[in-house]
Amino acid sequence: MDAAHQLIMANVGKHLSLTPDETACFSQMLVQKKFKRKHFLLQQGETCRYSAFVTGGCLRGYTLDRNGFEHVLSFAPSDWWMADMYSLLTQQPGSLNIEALEDTEVWLLSKYDQEQLYLQVPKFERFFRILTEKSLIAYQQRLIDNLSLTASERYARFCQRYPTLIHHLPQKQIAAYIGVTPEFFSKMKKEFG
């Protein structure tokens, strides 16, 4: 078992205990894929057909407004899952762009295989319910933060949520996540000291 496979199995192991047969069933449904920096896993208007588990690199999920301004909703560094949840669950065209911020390696699980997994290894319903609940909580908290916190407070929340990305991401990406211009973000960081 290579390091990437060990990482996804450890991620699943946080919530499920699998038999060797169940592990083999899950593993057979995964497709390993590599994306070059700035390449898309999903673009706005496409239907999301996969959940992606990041084993190396980093993804970002964002939308574009009418003026072409990017609104970053989330990042997925190594050991994180990402999908356009609305599109994946409804199989309708989505509004999220999912882009590799750097060369990124993922395991993909198709919506179809996920449904088959529920039938073959029912305990995976629990695993993906937990992921969906955590995603819902994160998006709700993000909405509340954007409505009620200052830019500095939103940056502090970013640092709590993504401690490994604070010094790893370009400032432009962090600014888009907290909803400010890169210039304002740079000035705000100087005031932080």
Automatic annotation (TrEMBL):
Highest rank taxon of the organism = Bacteria
Which Pfam family is one of this chain's hits? cNMP_binding
The segment(s) forming the Cyclic nucleotide-binding domain are 33-118
InterPro entries membership: cNMP-bd_dom (IPR000595), cNMP-bd_dom_sf (IPR018490), RmlC-like_jellyroll (IPR014710)
Q: What is this protein called?
A: Crp/Fnr family transcriptional regulator
Q: Which species?
A: Mucilaginibacter robiniae
